[in-house]
Design goal:
Radius of gyration: 15 Å
CATH superfamily: D-tyrosyl-tRNA(Tyr) deacylase
Number of helices: 2
Number of strands: 8
Distance between the termini: 12 Å
Structural class: alpha/beta
CATH architecture: 3-Layer(bba) Sandwich
Number of domains: 1
CATH class: Alpha Beta
Shape: globular
CATH topology: D-tyrosyl-trna(Tyr) Deacylase, Chain: A
Length: 149
């Protein structure tokens, strides 16, 4: 699984001009599921997202996670994170999991984060989504359960 995690002061996702998910302070997470990903990948990504200490503590040091700040998570499926553009100019997406299976893993990720008592808003899997956010810092972290970066 791959994720782009952004610390935000606000984020929302719209489909067909209607807001379907929105948060104030927290994390906007773009998530992709790869071929062969499973339980260990899910646990890795959930633990990293929930535990990233990228929020300022009272001394101004990046030392708190999203729960410690009372923040929320906006989780957006984005298979293009598994795009491979090393050859040519049109990326290939064969490393991404098939949509029907990937949808289940995205939903399981949201459920696992909620089980940690985090507020989670979501986009609509497979929809043409417009995501808007204010990246706070900016702080952006890349995660990969296979640790390729």
């Amino acid at each position: 699984m791959r994720a782009v995690v952004q610390r935000v002061s606000q984020a929302e996702v719209a489909v067909a001009g209607q807001t379907v998910g929105a948060i104030s302070r927290g994390l906007c997470v773009l998530l992709s599921v790869g071929q062969g990903d499973g339980e260990a990948d899910l646990r890795y990504i959930v633990d990293k997202i929930a535990g990233l200490r990228i929020f300022a503590d009272p001394e101004g040091k990046m030392n708190w996670d999203v729960a410690q700040t009372g923040g929320a998570i906006l989780l957006i499926s984005q298979f293009t994170l598994h795009g491979d553009a090393r050859r040519g100019k049109r990326p290939g997406f064969t490393a991404a999991m098939a949509p029907d299976a990937a949808r289940l893993w995205i939903d399981r990720c949201a459920e696992a984060l909620r089980a940690l008592h985090l507020e989670v808003a979501q986009g609509i899997f497979g929809a043409d989504m417009q995501v808007s956010l204010t990246n706070d810092g900016p702080v952006t972290i890349l995660l990969d359960s296979h640790k390729t970066f």
